[in-house]
């Protein structure tokens, strides 16, 4: 059975345009909550069951962009777990993330997508060298591309957050890295970076939707440029940080002095369990904590906590307390509560990024795509965090891709 998205969508649910290429979305962590929600949503949009609410590429902001329609996407991926997509989707229905009526209508197609999923890389369980693992992962991507006659593939990492890594000599030079990966006694790259390496070797673009290392090593950027493929990341901006990137510029534009900005995040599910480990949480805290100083123009007291509350599942709550000073030194405060469904907020952005990176690749762009900083807490290649300014950059850049020849 094919998992290629066929041409049954209604015209008003997709972005129109001349681009006719077929694109593969390859998800690392394909059986996780974010990936399953994204695939379920893609199928529902394709079939005209749901509108693409939350998809920026279907909003007025990007109406001039020349993007591949949802009907031309195929889906595959890697994962280290064996839970089926349908089983995961059933669990998401129970937790209120996926509507039951939507799953009922795409269940068979979700089962079809399962046929394109392959075993991922687990450094604790696999005895292969990292060079052998990368070859296997790349071969899976290339076979998927050939099987579905795809023009290009975009790999999106939505696997669990990893601890940060120290940059080694091998991480700085591509030739040294290649040699080190063949050493059976060493694991030079964290899994997310090995996935990026494999993607680039397969000629695929790469997106890291997590705060993990991903492609953010000099040697991997060298490989991306050598292969002529683009990449972007890191850490999708979906909740509390999204709110901060809107509100912090308000204080600076009105000359109000922020004295402190404290935040508490409560979440459950797989993310909550992963981030309960301080080593894993440190990556997330670093990506979140850099936003406020950049936006406010100076250091600020900003304690931030992430707590695992298992019963919340995929529903997360963030509470922020902002203390600020106004005219004549008068102290004031603002308190904000954000309650959202993490996978529901993340999934449409995953789809958007696949579309945009594919368009960039088709237009001959390679290396880091800083113009996609709009989507990330810790964007590559830019220190701009204000959402409004990021949106302006994104729109101009995406419009500039219009009419680019299909490679």
The total strand number stands at: 11
Largest sheet: 7 strands, parallel
Q: Can you tell me the residue ranges where pLDDT is under 50 for at least 5 consecutive residues?
A: 1-18, 403-407
Architecture of the largest domain, CATH level 2?
A: 3-Layer(aba) Sandwich
Structural class: alpha/beta
What is the terminal-to-terminal distance?
Answer: 28 Å
Number of helices: 14
Helix content: 40-55%
Portion of residues in beta strands equals 15-25%
User: In the CATH hierarchy, what is the class of the largest domain?
Assistant: Alpha Beta
Lateral strand order in the biggest sheet = 3-2-1-4-5-6-11
Count of distinct structural domains? 2
Order of helical and strand elements: EHEHHEHEHHHEHEHEHHHEEEHEH
Mean pLDDT: 90
The coarse silhouette is globular
CATH superfamily of the largest domain: NAD(P)-binding Rossmann-like Domain
- Stated plainly, the CATH topology of the largest domain is called Rossmann fold
Radius of gyration from the alpha-carbon trace, in angstroms: 21 Å
Task: Report on this structure.
By secondary structure, this protein is of the alpha/beta class. The chain folds into 2 domains: 11-236 and 344-400, Rossmann fold; 240-341, Dihydrodipicolinate Reductase, domain 2 (2-Layer Sandwich), CATH 3.30.360. The protein is 40% helix and 17% strand. The protein is built from 14 helices and 11 strands. The protein has helices at 33-46, 85-94, 100-113, 130-147, 169-172, 174-181, 191-201, 218-227, 240-253, 269-275, 278-289, 291-296, 342-362, 387-400, and strands at 23-28, 73-79, 117-119, 152-157, 205-208, 230-233, 257-267, 304-308, 315-325, 331-341, 367-368. Strands 3-2-1-4-5-6-11 form a 7-stranded parallel β-sheet, sandwiched between helices. Strands 8-7-9-10 form a 4-stranded mixed β-sheet. Helix 1 crosses helix 2, helix 2 runs antiparallel to helix 3 (100-113) and helix 4 crosses helix 7 (191-201). The longest helix has 21 residues, at 342-362. The radius of gyration is 21 Å and the shape is globular. The two termini are 28 Å apart. Residues 1-18 and 403-407 have low confidence and may be disordered. InterPro entries: Myo-inos-1-P_Synthase, Myo-inos-1-P_Synthase_GAPDH, NAD(P)-bd_dom_sf. Belongs to the myo-inositol 1-phosphate synthase family. Residues 239-343 form the Myo-inositol-1-phosphate synthase GAPDH-like domain. This is Inositol-3-phosphate synthase. Residues 1-16 have a biased composition (Low complexity).
């Amino acid at each position: 059975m094919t998992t290629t998205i066929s041409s049954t969508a209604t015209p008003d649910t997709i972005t129109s345009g001349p681009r006719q290429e077929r694109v593969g979305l390859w998800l690392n962590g394909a059986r996780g909550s974010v990936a399953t929600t994204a695939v379920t949503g893609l199928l529902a949009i394709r079939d005209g069951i749901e509108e693409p609410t939350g998809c920026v590429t279907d909003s007025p902001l990007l109406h001039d962009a020349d993007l591949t329609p949802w009907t031309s996407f195929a889906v595959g991926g890697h994962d280290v777990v064996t839970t089926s997509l349908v089983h995961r989707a059933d669990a998401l229905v129970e937790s209120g993330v996926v509507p039951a009526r939507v799953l009922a209508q795409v269940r068979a197609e979700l089962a079809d997508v399962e046929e394109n999923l392959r075993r991922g890389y687990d450094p604790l369980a696999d005895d292969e060298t990292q060079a052998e693992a990368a070859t296997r992962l790349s071969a899976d991507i290339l076979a998927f591309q050939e099987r579905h006659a795809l023009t290009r593939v975009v790999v999106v990492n939505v696997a669990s957050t990893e601890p940060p890594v120290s940059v080694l000599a091998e991480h700085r030079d591509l030739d040294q890295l290649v040699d080190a990966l063949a050493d059976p006694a060493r694991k030079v790259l964290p899994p997310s970076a090995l996935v990026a390496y494999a993607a680039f070797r397969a000629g695929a673009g790469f997106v890291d939707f997590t705060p993990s290392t991903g492609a953010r090593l000099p040697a991997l950027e060298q490989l991306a440029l050598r292969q002529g493929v683009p990449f972007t990341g890191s850490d999708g901006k979906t909740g509390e940080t999204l709110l901060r990137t809107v509100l912090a510029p308000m204080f600076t534009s009105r000359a109000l002095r922020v004295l402190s900005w404290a935040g508490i995040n409560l979440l459950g599910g797989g993310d909550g369990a992963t981030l309960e480990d301080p080593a894993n949480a440190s990556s997330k805290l670093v990506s979140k904590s850099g936003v406020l100083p950049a936006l406010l123009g100076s250091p600020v007291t900003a304690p931030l906590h992430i707590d695992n509350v298992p019963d919340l599942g995929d529903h997360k709550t963030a509470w922020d307390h902002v203390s600020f000073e106004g005219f004549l030194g008068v102290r004031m405060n603002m308190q904000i509560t954000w309650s959202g469904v993490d996978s529901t907020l993340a999934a449409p952005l995953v789809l958007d990024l696949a579309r945009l990176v594919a368009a960039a690749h088709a237009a001959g762009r390679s290396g880091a795509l800083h113009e996609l900083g709009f989507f990330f807490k810790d964007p590559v290649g830019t220190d701009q965090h204000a959402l409004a300014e990021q949106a302006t950059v994104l729109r101009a850049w995406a419009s500039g891709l219009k009419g680019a020849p299909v490679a």
